[in-house]
Amino acid sequence: MAFGWRASGSTNAELVDNLNRQGLFKSERIKEAMLAVDRGDFAPANPYMDAPISIGYSATISAPHMHATALHYLEDVIKNDSRILDVGSGSGYLVACFAKMIGPKGKVVGIEHIPQLVQLSINNLKKNHASLLENGVVKIIEGDGRLGYEQDAPYDAIHVGAAAPEIPSKLLDQLAVGGRMVIPVGRDNQEFLQIDKISEDKLVKKRLMGVIYVPLTSKEEQIGHRRIQYV
Ligand code: SAH
């Protein structure tokens, strides 16, 4: 059995329980958030398997253990009234988890560049979390996530769900002092980085682990290319 599949379950609760057994949750907060958000609302197939699943348009909903890991590294900067930016929000799963970790004065902005995925995430969220969209705690924006979303900046936490060739400077600009970004960086060899903004001109970067993410790129690069095979 492939690594990462060990946590698979037959229900959302079983999946979360198995992730917990693997020691992925530093605190109850992340476990509670993942229990409150049924991955079945967001993954089109095998939702309780610990693996990434295609959501179309060359995108995937990330594997549950990667979602848990991202939440783990951001947890310390997520407070009741935090503002959070999720770049490449895809299925909308993580946006919902972030929203469960903040209160009504906090805000989660998901930014996604494929319009059909923006719609998919809104439909997914409406299944069991419509109130988050109605009360404005969650907002999904169609746009280029490499530019961030100036209107609601600065953000206490920024999660980037696709691998950038280099760290987008606009995202660093939109990070609050005291805030943290986690981002996969690189092309062939990707590293998951944690970047803390200590003061207006001081960033502290830490390498967390090697990862495999789809690229943070242009819409054309992601879906425009058709592979032509000559036989
Ligand atoms: N975290 C999400 C999606 C991960 S896949 C989930 O688990 O469901 C990465 C996503 O990043 C895809 O949906 C892809 O369309 C999006 N993406 C890639 N480049 C982007 C860009 N420049 N701006 C916004 N979204 C982008």
Bound molecules: S-adenosyl-L-homocysteine
The radius of gyration is: 17 Å
Question: Biggest sheet, strands in spatial order?
Answer: 5-4-3-6-7-8-9
N to C succession of SSEs: HHEEHEHEHEEHEEEH
Supply the helix-strand structural class. Answer: alpha/beta
Largest sheet: 7 strands, mixed
Overall spatial form: globular
What average pLDDT do the residues reach? 94
Low-pLDDT residue intervals, each spanning 5 or more residues: none
Total strands: the figure is: 9
Strand content: 25-35%
- Terminus-to-terminus distance: 35 Å
Helix content: 25-40%
The number of helical elements comes to 7
Descriptive account of the structure:
Helices cover 30% and strands 26% of the residues. By secondary structure, the protein is of the alpha/beta class. Helix 2 (28-36) packs across helix 4. The mean pLDDT is 94. Strand 1 and strand 2 (59-61) form a beta hairpin. The structure holds S-adenosyl-L-homocysteine. S-adenosyl-L-homocysteine is lined by residues 59-62, 88-91, 93-94, 111-114, 117, 144-146, 161-162, 214, 216-217, 222. One of its GO terms (molecular function) is protein-L-isoaspartate (D-aspartate) O-methyltransferase activity. Its main location: cytoplasm. Its EC number is 2.1.1.77.
Q: Would you kindly provide a brief summary of this structure?
A:
This protein is 30% helix and 26% strand.
Notable characteristics:
transferase, two-stranded antiparallel sheet, 231 residues, 7-stranded mixed β-sheet, alpha/beta, S-adenosyl-L-methionine, methyltransferase, 7 helices, binds S-adenosyl-L-homocysteine, cytoplasm, SAM-dependent_MTases_sf
